[in-house]
Amino acid sequence: MTTEELSQQVGPAESKHINSRRYQDVISGDRVTTTHWFIAWAGGLGFMIESMGTAVYALIIPQLLDDFDADLNELTFALFLVGLLSAGATYFWPWLADRIGRRPCFIINIVLCALSLVLVALSWNWLSFIAFYGLYLCAQVGEWGVAACLISETWPARRRASVLSFARSFYGYGAALAGLLGVTLVATIGWRYAFLLPAGVAFLALFVRFFCPESPYWLRARDRRTRLRAAVARGEQVSAEDSAWQRKAEKPGLGQLFLADQRRRTIVAIFVPVVGLMAFTIVGAWQPLYLHNELGWTTSEYSVYTIWWGLAGTLGYYLFGWIADHRSRLSAMFAGNLLCIVTIIPWALSTEPWAIYTFGLLANVGLIGVWGTIMTYTAELFPTRIRGLGQGISWGTAGLISKGVPFLALLISDVTGSFQLAFLLIPVLLIIQLIGLVVAKTEYAGKELDEIAV
């Protein structure tokens, strides 16, 4: 039997799933099923947990400093150190997903998120808070790569950016819920209870994830490698295409990322999230403290602003996800960046509440709204055999570099007496990203993953 004939058969890995109704749903061609929506919701709830945990931390910084008698610089530096560990975890989770599968990695990740959030609420001093919050950070960063892999490998290509943007839009809802927690819990009975709601969402996400099937792309890539290894061991002749694929697949993972036919895509996939995450981290980390310390807003006032800030971001996800699927990935990222650039500058220079709301919410439509497109874009840039690894390298590098950004912004604030100059770095970073996208000219809207790279 030839290798070509073998390639038409279901391999041992896929055969374990082929009779599952939910697996059959995701190999049903262009049809969208209930199972597809389970996958989207499972990823969306994970992104919601991430945003809730991150936004709640930003909201409670003033209370943490009082409760634990901590210094802001010490607290920021400690989080910078654990942030370096979480950047490594950003690489680890997708790497693990390439080895054990998208689905089991998806489930393990959310269990750790839930448990770590409960431990954060039980912290007894600022060191224990940092340790448990650091564990949470190391768990939640897995959502970026693993969720993007599973969603992109199960949904039809024509809706890939829209559905990843839909899932990612839960980040905005999570930020809005965090603002609501700030008004109802943090401002009244303290910060600890605010971490229990995202823990509850994590357990809900765990339930939903049991309805998610394994990625057919991952199973077929695994079976292809198994078949080719067996054929070569038996001394059978394989096609030139299979032989070339096997040579790549047998190389160390990192080496595959920088092969001649992949190198350009890998560089683009690293550059885009690095610059984007640097820009977002500045405002995401320090906006509540800035409103509290420099503009005199109360916990309730900046929490209400955070609610609307998060909801504005969800609008951006839907808008730019639609543009990414109906026009192109590049046009969606261009539109989002330009909107943020022209509104974040007057926001940073404003002191009046109406201007903070108007320009801040518009800026967030662009700043957050493109992240669904960016996650789609990076997932498309890697072949299935190393998609998890590639996503890990992209987002791990972005996380590693961006972890120093809050500390840099704090240093600028200490020197200048305000965060305004730090916020004005955001349009500069977004302009750099736009220039890079123009130079790269890489676009794969609407293409099947195996049409892009195998």
From TrEMBL:
Taxonomy of the source species: Bacteria, Bacillati, Actinomycetota, Actinomycetes, Pseudonocardiales
Subcellular location: Cell membrane
InterPro entries per UniProt: MFS, MFS_dom, MFS_trans_sf
Domain Major facilitator superfamily (MFS) profile intervals: 39-445
Source organism, top-level taxon: Bacteria
Keyword Transmembrane helix part of the UniProt annotation: yes
PROSITE patterns (UniProt xref): MFS
Name listed for the protein in its UniProt record: MFS transporter
TM spans (from-to): 38-60, 75-93, 105-124, 130-150, 170-189, 195-212, 267-286, 306-323, 330-349, 355-377, 389-412, 418-440
Main location: membrane
Annotated keywords: Membrane, Transmembrane, Transmembrane helix
Lipid bilayer topology: Multi-pass membrane protein
